[in-house]
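re: that complex we talked abt at group meeting.

here r the seqs, copy pasted straight from the sheet so there may be weird spacing, ignore it
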Amino acid sequence: MKTRIAVMVSGGGTNLQALLDAWKSGQFNQAEISLVVSNQEKAKALDRARAVHVPALFLNPAQYKDRQAYDQQLLKSFQENKIDLICLAGYMRILTTVIVRQYEQRIMNIHPALLPAFGGEGMYGLHVHEAVMQSGAKYSGCTVHFVDEGTDTGPIILQAVVPVLDHDTPDKLAERVLIEEHRLYPRAVSLFCEGRLQVAGKRVLIKEKA
Amino acid sequence: MKTRIAVMVSGGGTNLQALLDAWKSGQFNQAEISLVVSNQEKAKALDRARAVHVPALFLNPAQYKDRQAYDQQLLKSFQENKIDLICLAGYMRILTTVIVRQYEQRIMNIHPALLPAFGGEGMYGLHVHEAVMQSGAKYSGCTVHFVDEGTDTGPIILQAVVPVLDHDTPDKLAERVLIEEHRLYPRAVSLFCEGRLQVAGKRVLIKEKA
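got the structure back, here u go
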């Protein structure tokens, strides 16, 4: 049985593209990207999905009375498509418990900093890189983690480190981090599909290849 | 004029040893380690200083009515010895404003994690490595920073990164971090002595070699 993956995006979707590329080049053993969902009708990510014949679904938040109702519909789509793993890739809404509890340890997110630092409310996009630079930290990076009921608090699966340079701007730092994101997210998905991720409290241990 | 350095220690002093070794091997251009101070009479660090003929001073906290009075005496010793730079190397007391204000941007500390994460009250020694491991972070490291009036909040000078491994214990992680500490602290002191550290808010930029 293949692991069926849904990717959720709100924007350009370069992380989605990295996942699609990894899949198409055979990096995901026994898995397929089965669905791409966006809350933004014009998200470029939907075009990226369609370009490789992956079903691309726009779910309009304006048509639901609240986030719970929206997530109920999302959940229905995931179940209908027999989704095993949900990958958030620049999805700019907080998932409610409606989904988080049904997909415990089966939802991943990528965050553009070294969690547990520089996470939480308000820490998204360039805000993260601005905060890193203002802190004076000499290293930043990115984190793929399981999603729990908090914001950026779930078990950390993989991280990658990049230097913060003296002449950086938040934009330049974001670019350097993004290159690592595109490498890291496919690796995390691969490990999941191979059944090699073992959650122990807040830690995720990686089992040897069988 | 040589930069005159005082090192403050409470314990074994392996970071002091790293600084002494760097100095003796000629890494500190135009600087000398002029004084080692401890609040612990039996600190092995005092022996390390004496072994290379550096004045080693034990100041007994029990003889002073409070931390301010103690730090007044410390300050007097620094001034008598014309100290330009104070390096905390496992000094297990918080410096009061008595010293911090007189030596603004001339006191350094080394912390065994990647600040701003895993710093603050209670974060010292193995507690730091335990907290890192419990968080599930995949990287840790060490930080040399200037000391300000907060705990572990001053401008970051240099950092080094080490991986956290699946089979780590806090002790093993501490060892791996310590190796980097011994490299990092002498580099930071070197840069200071060469006048190459430029503080801009919370950031420390490193000037090109003249």
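couple things i noticed - Residues 109-210 of chain B form a domain with the Rossmann fold fold (CATH 3.40.50.170). Residues 123 and 135 of chain B are 14 Å apart (CA to CA).
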